[in-house]
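Need a sequence for this fold. Nothing fancy.
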């Protein structure tokens, strides 16, 4: 099925104050490509600000998306984890913000966990995968910046990430647009089953 985006707009930062719609959230380290991927999904150059400088996005930003012949939804751009380093044992600003966002959020259908295809999943990825499971949202790993590797290196990395995380990652690139349609298919499976 081809997804046609009718309109997409910034809707705010606080979901308690927004009309209820299904949500698809994007989590990952700073600079992994969350904002870029949302723009690619929406076919927009710069609806969401992207940056070479990590830690640009510090709020949870909701983008309301109207689709042709399909239900509307929010794409939710979470801040990159680890933007505020804190002493061991203390919860980071990110964890506090995320805990508030995930807790009791029945509208969150799918959590895309973005991981640079050249990196192994670590503590932060496992933490956010657990958070998704606690809400009942389906977690999925997107391996970003796939264009940075040769075809064979990419296949090796996909296998390795699958082995370490226990889930098959979707390789994506906003440069080649590889994986963009595959992610829409995963979104539709959650918001418009059948
Ligand atoms: N080559 C390549 N570069 C990418 C890709 N996706 C993102 N980038 C680049 O990576 C940098 C960071 O992208 P962003 O989308 O701003 O990353 P982010 O995850 O939103 O970062 P924060 O908002 O800081 O958490 C930018 O310079 C992007 O152009 C990709 O698929 N391929
Ligand atoms: Mg961003």
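Here you go.
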């Amino acid at each position: 099925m081809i997804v046609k985006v009718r309109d997409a707009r910034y809707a705010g930062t606080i979901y308690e104050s927004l009309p209820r719609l299904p949500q698809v959230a994007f989590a990952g380290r700073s600079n992994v490509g969350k904002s870029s991927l949302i723009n690619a999904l929406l076919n927009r150059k710069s609806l969401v600000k992207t940056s070479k400088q990590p830690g640009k996005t510090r709020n949870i930003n909701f983008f309301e998306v109207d689709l042709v012949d399909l239900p509307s939804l929010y794409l939710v751009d979470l801040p990159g984890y680890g933007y505020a380093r804190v002493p061991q044992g203390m919860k980071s600003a990110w964890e506090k913000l995320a805990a508030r966002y995930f807790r009791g959020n029945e509208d969150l259908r799918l959590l895309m966990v973005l991981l640079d295809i050249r990196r192994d999943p670590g503590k932060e990825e496992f933490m956010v995968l657990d958070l998704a499971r606690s809400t009942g949202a389906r977690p999925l790993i997107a391996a970003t910046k796939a264009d940075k590797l040769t075809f064979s290196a990419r296949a090796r990395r996909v296998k390795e990430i699958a082995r370490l995380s226990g889930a098959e990652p979707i390789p994506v690139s906003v440069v080649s647009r590889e994986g963009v349609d595959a992610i829409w298919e995963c979104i539709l499976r959650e918001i418009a089953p059948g």
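For context: The domain at 5-191 is CATH 3.40.50.300 (Rossmann fold).
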